[in-house]
Amino acid sequence: MPEFRFDPVELPPTAPALRERVRQFLALERSRHTFDPIRNSWTSFNAEFSRRCGEEGLIGLVFPREYGGQGMSNLERYVVMEELIAGGAPVGAHWIADRQSGMQILRHGTEHARRLIIPRIVTGQCYFAIGMSEPDSGSDLAAVRTRAVRVDGGWRITGTKVWTSNAHRAHYLIALVRTAPKTEARHEGMTQFIVDMSQPGVTTRPIYNLYGGHDFNEVVFDDHFVPDEMVLGQPGEGWQLVTGELAYERSAPDRFMSVYAVLLETMRKLGPQPDAHAASEMGRFVAHLAALRFMSNSIAGKLQRGEQPIVEAALVKDIGTTFEREIPEVARKLIPSESTMGKGNSFDDMLGGAVLRAPAATIRGGTREILRGMIARGLGLR
Ligand SMILES: Cc1cc2nc3c(=O)[nH]c(=O)nc-3n(C[C@H](O)[C@H](O)[C@H](O)COP(=O)(O)OP(=O)(O)OC[C@H]3O[C@@H](n4cnc5c(N)ncnc54)[C@H](O)[C@@H]3O)c2cc1C
Q1: In the structure, what pLDDT confidence band is assigned to residue 346 with cuts at 50, 70 and 90?
Q2: Is residue 249 annotated as a catalytic residue, yes or no?
Q3: What residue's CA is closest to ligand 1, atom 51?
Q4: Phi first, then psi: what are they for 154, rounded to 5°?
Q5: Residue of higher predicted confidence among 244 and 339
Q6: How far apart are CA 361 and CA 363, in angstroms?
């Protein structure tokens, strides 16, 4: 039977200094009241904070220097991501561009796209959205119906994407589009395009979530023109590209640390002498966190070596987001509190935000059922 490989990796010698640099930056920003760690997570959108991250050199660490990056390793970037998330930093504006879109452009984009876009991502002033899901195609991406036809100098796209987080504030969106008729080989005939959201033929409409927030959208393409320079890879390679992109999307610490502040605050409230039940719950969470961190770290090492750890990333996302859902549920049983939103009590508000966000974690980026199917296939069980 095939097996998962999570080889241990050593963080580079530069890690402690990098960690300290991010901590000092966050302490300074907190002292300036730029953000409140209690009310934020990696999904919180704060353009000014992202610009500050850019100034501090905390974006595009792994991008090559010739495009404005710092040529660091994935493991160095891992340390920075971990500290930003643990510190409750509102990195949502630039997160997608830094975590996955920039890498897609560097690996598969044209030189024109790299030079046009990558230096702007690094400054924290260029944001990306993910255009994978469609009204009848979320889990089953091979069923995408948005299509593009070849025209002189590029392609014209028509169709609809849904659940596109932050598309209303993004400068670009990477869209997975059908460029050849569907055949028995369902995964063939798709292509990824970089869509400039400011160009004609793109309409973004809000989809309000259950608590009235506007995070995601429907994006409609009506004969939208994309020049050849904005195609990723070769036409027809979209499936391979999108699965590679998902390895970046599913394996990072944002998949298990978005409620880290709730865990810490719960421990603080329980104090140094928790009862046996509370101690056992906290011990269990700390052990899970350590295991997840080890696995996610190991994947960062694989990405650094140019591997595509798709099944391992699915496992981290599945276990990580299940872990994230459990923390607020256990916390509110252990500490008498009422989950609230913006009422002023920091623990209740933090718990309120976590309870509302947690269910989405196991859906976005691939549902639990789909990930478990992939894991079973990866193990040769299906
Ligand atoms: C907060 C949030 C942000 C998101 N942001 C983005 C974004 O930026 N860009 C983007 O493209 N998408 C985004 N999504 C969409 C997300 O990726 C999809 O919701 C997800 O992939 C599921 O697709 P679906 O909603 O169409 O559900 P469906 O695919 O219709 O699935 C419905 C249910 O059926 C189950 N199911 C489906 N097929 C199978 C199967 N073969 N075997 C077993 N069970 C199955 C699923 O697990 C699920 O429980 C976001 C979603 C959320 C919640």
Answers
A1: confident
A2: yes
A3: 364
A4: 170, -145
A5: 244
A6: 5
- In whole angstroms, what is the distance from residue 285 CA to residue 263 CA? 8
Q: Which atom of ligand 1 is nearest to the CA of 131?
A: 11
Written as six digits, the tokens of 43 are 């999904």
Per-residue pLDDT tens over the stretch 177-236? 999 998 999 999 999 999 999 999 999 999 998 878 899 999 999 999 999 999 999 999
Predicted confidence (pLDDT) at residue 1 exceeds the cutoff of 70: no
Q: Find tokens 């880290």 and name the residue.
A: 260
Give the number of the atom of ligand 1 that is nearest the alpha carbon of residue 165. Answer: 8
Residues in contact with ligand 1 by the CB-under-6-Å rule are 129-133, 138-139, 163-165, 216, 360, 363-367, 369-370, 373
pTM of the prediction?
0.95
Give residue 85's identity as a one-letter amino acid code. Answer: I
Res 382 pLDDT > 90:
no
Instruction: Find the catalytic residue in 249, 265, 312, 324.
Output: 249
Residue ranges of E strands in the chain: 128-131, 147-151, 154-165, 172-178, 190-196, 202-208, 214-227, 231-232
Q: How far is ligand 1, taken at its centre, from the CA of residue 133, in Å?
A: 7
Strand-pair category, 128-131 with 172-178: parallel
Length of the chain: 382
Q: Is 265 left (phi over 0), alpha (psi -120 to 50) or beta?
A: alpha
Task: Give pLDDT, residue 344.
Answer: 66
Distance CA 203, CA 218 (A): 8
- Determine the pLDDT at residue 7: 93
Q: How would DSSP label each residue in 176-214?
A: EEE-S---SSTTSSEEEEEEETTSTTEEEEEEE-TTS-E
Tell whether the model's pLDDT for residue 48 goes beyond 80. Answer: yes
Ligand 1 centroid–CA 258 distance in Å is: 20
Look at the block and give the residue holding tokens 């052990």: 287
Cα 255 to middle of ligand 1, angstroms: 16
Residue type, 230: M
Token pair of 342, please? Answer: 């913006």
Task: Give dist(CA 248, CA 252) in Å, integer.
Answer: 7
For residue 230, which of 180, 195, 179 has the smallest C-alpha distance?
195
Tell me the CA–centroid distance for residue 355 and ligand 1, in Å: 19
